[in-house]
Amino acid sequence: MADHFTLRLVDSYMLAPTVRHLVFERADGQVLAFVPGQFLQVHFQYDDGTPTKRSYSVATVGDGRSPAQRIEIAVSYVEGGAATRLLGSLEAGQTVEASGPYGRFCLQPGDAHPRYLLLATGTGVTPYRAMLPLLRELLAQGGREVALLYGARNETELLYGAEFEAFERENPGFSFHACLSRQARAVPRPNDRSGHVQGVLAELSPSADRDIAYLCGNPNMVDGAFNALKEYGLPVPQIRREKYVSSR
Q: pLDDT for 35-88, tens place per residue?
């Protein structure tokens, strides 16, 4: 059941030139029970008093199962955006109204395919960060693989990139592919690729017998990857999608 609550900002930092990582706690002192992959909605008003809301995936890394004391999200700056004005200027101790959690963009206990393909652009990578503890358990059981393909224009826009690289080093079977469309990294990694996420899919030879795919981020990427995966033979139930649309 979704709940309504007040969030108090306790910490924040810039993840990228136009993306801010925000850390909240509930003002009532309660924890947030959520499943990695779910999202919250932040509620506020436009200048004319009209109520509105924005959705943000929970980025918190816990143990994958227990409620979280700290609630983390990543917010992209949208020029002239009302949510950007609210969350971009929020200071420690200030509050916002929120509700949740919502969504079913989560790992399913009945999944038995040997590989997950996780595709993301921008802040669409945040649900995968929250999934890392569950993926660690899955990989430790053996016989499973996880490939994360993350699209960005350049190195500065690879949100949580160092965390995913550390996870790759520590967990055999996990691979992190930075797909850079504008500029390569100053120090390229072996799995770096030039171009867009959906264009790199061919290297991984997706197949219906092997893969379940998750797509999260820019609608153009999600739609393009969805169509490509269908051409590789993946049935629609094995392709799970969540689109991030920038709103003013």
A: 999 999 999 999 888 999 999 999 999 998 999 999 999 999 988 888 988 999
Whole-number Å distance between alpha carbons of 158 and 173: 21
Please name every residue paired with 183 in a beta bridge, in sequence order, or none if there are none. Answer: none
What percentage of the chain exceeds 90 in pLDDT?
A: 77
Residue 126, phi then psi, degrees to nearest 5: -60, -40
On whether the CB atoms of residues 213 and 95 are closer than 8 A, the answer is no
Q: Is the dihedral of CA 167, 169, 172, 177 positive or negative?
A: positive
Counting Cβ atoms within 10 Å, is residue 82 exposed (0-12), middle (13-18) or buried (19+)? middle
3-state secondary structure of 129: helix
Which DSSP category does 42 fall into? E
H or E element: which one contains 137?
A: helix 126-140
